[in-house]
Amino acid sequence: MGVAVGVDSHKESVAAATVDELGRTLEVRRFANDSTGHDEVLAWVQSNPDVTRIGIEGSGVYGAALARVLMAAGEDVREVPPTLTFRERRRNGSHGKSDPVDAVAIARVVVREGALSSPRRTAVWDDLKLLVDYRDQLVRVRTQLSNRIHRDLVVVHPGYQKHVPDLRSKKNVAQAVKLLRGDRSVRAELTRRRISQLRRFDQELTANKTEIASTVARSETTLTELPGIGVLIAAKILAETGDVTKIRSQSAFAMLAGTAPLQASSGATSRHRLNRGGNRQLNHALHYMALVQYRSHVAPTSAIPYRSSFSLNARLFGPAGRTGG
């Protein structure tokens, strides 16, 4: 495949190395991680006509700006997961660990791995991660604000819960404002201010959901075709999973999501127990999907959680499904 370039990106600098198709080191350089350094990296890459592909570890973080410069110049840039760099470096443990050593390891991964994803695709997952995390933050703060309003309403208007069971809908929020009408106490005034903040959070959540839906559509995922998965759950799965090619199997994904049962055998007793590890965000998404299918499907209820897991795995790893990778 010609010459491959590996780039190990950090906050202030990037280390770059070139290797041939047999993985032999040709050159190692260090550049500043700024606009001048990025131009120097591009000039260095273009000075070698045999360069065919560039791998960057951290193309969504410290290496994002450099990746954009290289892609704008027409270079074939790929994201190299840190796990692959670690495995490659471990094969040559006698060299220790340093930025140049990591750059060489990244370049060798580029030579060996043909299915590395493009930072353009990685950018979609990064955007979803940011949007989903921001939404989770908004929901937490809104819940805290809502709980405080409930505490105030208990004092200002005892028995209010008969008229305002919750503050999730616009109708109930408007009813809470109506209950405070005419009350000029300090507590009532502060409660009205908190309700105004609550409405602003609702507007922000609505705008956030629109952004998430647009980004999910840009990812070209087919997860939303599965029962129980809307744009928000699909966004959570894609954001937490990222590049599915870095997960070696369906079983590995089940361990990642905490849905694979764990051995708990002892002596003559052979059994499994619930897996409380793994990524709990992914686990929640799968649990929610199973609940929706439990309510809407006519299949035996005992099979629903397992069918949910299998159908999701099929979408992520099967030949017919794709996550956008």
Plain-language structure description:
The chain is α/β, with parallel strands linked by helices and 325 residues long. Helices cover 54% and strands 11% of the residues. It has eleven helices and seven strands. A five-stranded mixed beta sheet has the order 3-2-1-4-5. A two-stranded antiparallel sheet has the order 6-7. Strand 6 and strand 7 (272-273) form a beta hairpin. Helix 1 (35-46) packs across helix 2, helix 3 crosses helix 4 (99-112) and helix 7 crosses helix 8 (231-241). Mean pLDDT is 84; it is low at 298-306 and 319-325.
With strands numbered from the N-terminus, the spatial order across the biggest sheet is 3-2-1-4-5
Helix count equals 11
> What is the radius of gyration computed over CA atoms, rounded to a whole number of angstroms?
26 Å
- CATH class annotation of the largest domain: Alpha Beta
Describe the main β-sheet briefly.
Answer: 5 strands, mixed
Report the principal-axis shape: globular
Total of domains: 3
Intertermini distance: 22 Å
